[in-house]
């Protein structure tokens, strides 16, 4: 049975923080609109993919890496508040479900930076971005993540999140298709006494609203 990555006490604290988060988001939108003369851009995305059986470097080659028999589906939201010439900066929050050898869930959040698109021809746009933050899971996924947890006698519940991404679209306001390396780790035992944890190659669709 799939477990959510919150117990009752954690959920209470999370819910109590929502009003503050809403106020901060509203103030950021006002600041951004006043500073840059335009409303912040928001996007929603969905994705699906597979967890790899190797480290981040090897996992960045989707066709060459081995996979560990686990899949992942997820969705998220982004809001870009600051337009800094050639890069837009904002925040991202997401939820994913991992399945296969076991069933677990994940939530993550953090800042996201998106470079201006590389334009090829009249319509094709290739856009790199990266999300950096924290990721919490309901349990270690059976496979590489659980193996890493045992090897380092660590705790994979709360780790760093990294999501380098490349998206492709054919108009500025059109839906885009993206590839992302969905990565969790302890960054050299900084969190959870963990080094690596999970890497997933995912393909998704993003909508601007």
UniProtKB/TrEMBL annotation:
Domain of life (superkingdom): Bacteria
Keywords: Signal
Identification of the protein by name: Lipid A 3-O-deacylase (PagL)
Species annotation: Palleronia marisminoris
Residues of the signal peptide: 1-32
């Amino acid at each position: 049975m799939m477990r959510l990555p919150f117990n009752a006490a954690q959920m209470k604290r999370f819910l109590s923080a929502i009003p503050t988060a809403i106020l901060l988001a509203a103030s950021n939108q006002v600041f951004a609109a006043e500073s840059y003369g335009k409303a912040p851009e928001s996007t929603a995305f969905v994705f699906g993919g597979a967890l790899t059986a190797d480290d981040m470097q090897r996992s960045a080659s989707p066709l060459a890496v081995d996979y560990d028999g686990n899949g992942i589906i997820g969705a998220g939201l982004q809001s870009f508040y600051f337009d800094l010439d050639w890069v837009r900066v904002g925040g991202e929050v997401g939820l994913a479900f991992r399945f296969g050898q076991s069933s677990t869930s994940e939530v993550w959040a953090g800042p996201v930076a998106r470079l201006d698109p590389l334009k090829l021809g009249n319509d094709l746009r290739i856009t790199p971005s990266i999300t950096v933050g924290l990721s919490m899971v309901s349990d270690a996924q059976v496979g590489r993540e659980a193996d890493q947890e045992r090897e380092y006698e660590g705790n994979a519940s709360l780790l760093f999140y990294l999501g380098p991404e490349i998206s492709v679209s054919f108009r500025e306001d059109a839906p885009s298709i993206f590839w992302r390396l969905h990565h969790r780790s302890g960054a050299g035992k900084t969190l959870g006494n963990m080094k690596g944890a999970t890497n997933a190659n995912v393909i998704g669709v993003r909508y601007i609203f």
